[in-house]
Amino acid sequence: MKLADAIVGWAPEIVAIRRDLHTHPELAYEEVRTADVVAQKLESWGIPVHRGLGITGVVGTIEGKTQNGRAVGLRADMDALPMQEANTFGHASKHEGKMHACGHDGHTAMLLAAARYLAEHRDFEGTVYVIFQPAEEGHGGAKAMIDDGLFSLFPMDAVFGMHNWPGMAEGSFGVVAGPVMASSNTFHIRLEGKGAHGAMPHLGVDPVMAAVQLAQSLQTIITRDRNPLQPAVLSITQIHTGSADNVIPNDAIIRGTVRTFTDETLDLIETRMAEITEHTSQALNCKAEFSFQRNYPPTINHEKEADFCAQVLNGIVGAENVDRGIPPSMGAEDFAFMLREKPGCYVWIGNGLGGHRSEGHGTGPCMLHNGSYDFNDNLIPLGATYWVELAKQWLTSSHS
Fold first, then answer.
1. Which pick of 129, 140, 170, 345 has the fewest CB atoms within 10 Å?
2. Binding positions for Mn(2+) (predicted)?
3. What is the rounded CA–CA span in Å between residue 227 and residue 43?
């Protein structure tokens, strides 16, 4: 493994920053303190800072010793999750109901370490933009930054992202061309019937049975309408109805999520859901209100950029530690918006199996969005070295 010596030397300092961020988690668009920490560190290293894109976003500009007209963007997310931490170690969250359970504190730390190295050495051509993004967790901070002018104010030829991945061995990476994360979409269905006494159902219109029938029927979209070679998930996660054992309620609510890797499959699912909802409700004498919200598009890595990232990683950890065949995740990531605007690639860095957690961690697994999760600080020198090498090689390569 080939790590940048300077970054290895700074590791204790960067780990302290990461743990401070973990102790003070902030939710989407509330990352004021986090953004302050990031901006102050960048400025202390001589990096000009722009703030306010996407409300709390931070962008640093690092120019090389010479300019060649090329620029590259490196992105990390900053927000935490609205959930309770189960860990009790020294850097556990001090904010009730808020936790860095996805490792965004670690992502921020790795990019800070890389920014410091690039600013102190500047042994590259062109410009590196370090992008610290708010509101990844379901609130579209990437799109907000783009809408506020990210790519017009900071024109770049490509943009890259990275996420820690629990269960993947420490010291390894995953890179795949094409889909790496799915789209994220939600639906809401309201079925309106006519309330009645539970002992006299013939005097009402039962939305409960309509909901039961509809829940079953919607699954036929996956099993009969969708091309089986196109992955997709349709999960009903909530059904709300009724308030008493002997009362047929007036309405029922069905909610859930749909995940796909292509817009074509998503179009099919949304269309068929609307049709089945309408006809099933009509058959059971109910009225239906159907809404479908498209939140994040699929995260699609560009082939040339994925190959380039793999080459860079091969030189750091060896090809045997770079998995080019990782199966895409049905989870979602709003870096997808950036990859729709610019060429780039999103890689996974192995967070290990959880053995890095100190005494006082929760009893649950060290998985993403789990109250017992903690970022593996051993990754900071490795992830930062990858960022540095990726930027330097991209800016000087004919590939770019």
1. 170
2. 102, 104, 137, 163, 369
3. 52
Residues 333 and 139: beta-carbon distance below 8 Å: no
β-sheet bridge partners, residue 234:
258
Under DSSP, the state recorded for 328 is P
The helix (H) or strand (E) run that includes residue 160 is strand 158-165
d(CA 226, CA 229): 8
Tens digits of per-residue pLDDT, 239-289?
999 999 999 999 999 999 999 999 999 999 999 999 999 999 999 999 999
Q: What is the dihedral of CA 399, 308, 377, 94, to 10 degrees?
A: 70
3-class DSSP state of 333: coil
Q: Do you know the residue count of the chain?
A: 400
For helices 104-121 and 379-396, give the axis angle rounded to 10 degrees.
Answer: 50
Order across the sheet with 251-260: list the strands: 232-241, 251-260, 184-192, 287-296
Question: Chain-wide mean pLDDT for the chain?
Answer: 97
Q: In what order do the strands lie in the sheet with 158-165?
A: 49-51, 58-63, 125-133, 66-77, 158-165, 344-350, 173-174, 322-323
Cα–Cα dist 300/341, whole Å:
11
Nearest alpha carbon to residue 76 among 379, 395, 399, 398: 379
Spatial distance between the Cα atoms of 184 and 259, rounded to a whole number of angstroms: 5
Is 104 flagged in the annotation as binding?
yes
The two three-digit tokens of residue 173, written as one number: 């990476």
163 annotated binding-site participant: yes
| Residue whose C-alpha is closest to residue 290's, from 331, 325, 255, 323 | 255
Predicted local confidence at residue 398, as pLDDT: 61
The DSSP line for 335-370 is HHHHHHHS-EEEEEEE--SSTT--TT--SS---TT-
- pLDDT band at residue 400 using 50, 70 and 90 as cut-offs: very low
Report pTM: 0.94
Within 13 Å and on the Cβ side, how many CA atoms surround 13? 9
Please, what are the domains in the chain?
5-181+298-396 (3.40.630.10), 184-296 (3.30.70.360)
Q: Backbone phi, then psi, for 363, in 5-degree steps?
A: -85, -10
